[in-house]
Predict the 3D structure of the following.
Amino acid sequence: MSKGQKLRVVTPEDMQVADLFCYSVSDVTETLSSGRSIDYNDTIYLTQGHDLYSNRSNVMLSVLQDSCGRHDFLMTPCSLRMFQIVSGSSHYHPSCHENLVRAFQELGVEGDTVGTTFNLFMNVAVDSLGLISIQPPLARAGDYILLQAQMDLHVGLTACSHPETNHFHCKPIHYRLE
C-alpha cells in the first residue's frame, strides 16, 4: 500500500476473522506492533479513530471506519506449532502464520518476524482476572473496516483457518484497495 491509500476489509459472511500484518517498505525491520498500538491508544479494543503503530512508534495505519467495532490485537496468528501444542497431535494444519510468511517471503524477512497480528473481526474477551477466551466473532455479513496507510507498507492479509476464532466454520474474507 502506498501512503494515503485505503484498504477496506469486508466479511461477506457472518463471523469470519482475518489476520493482518505489515512492514514498512523503506525498512522491513519496522513492523506492526500490538504493544505500542495498545499502549498509545490506551485500549485493547482498537476501532474507528485509532492508529496502529510500528515497533518504532510511527503510525502505520489509521482506522477510518469500522462497522463491527471488535477486533483483537492480543493473540498471535495461529501457527502449525500452536495447533500441534493445543491438539497434542503432529498432524499438519494450515495457519495464518504460514500464509503470512509465504506472502512476505519475497521481501527476504524471516518467519519469526511476523509478530502479533491485528486480528480483524476476532472477539477475544478478557475477564477481571486477566484470563482470555476466544468468543464467537461479532461480525455479520457485510461488516467492514477501512484502514488508511500512513506510510508505504507491505501488507499481508489472510482469512483465519482456526476453527474456534470463526465459530467453527471457516469462510472467505474480501478486501479492496481504494
Remarks:
- The longest helix spans residues 96-104.
- The first strand starts at residue 6 and ends at 10.
- Helices lie at 34-41, 80-87, 96-104.
- The two ends are 10 Å apart (CA to CA).
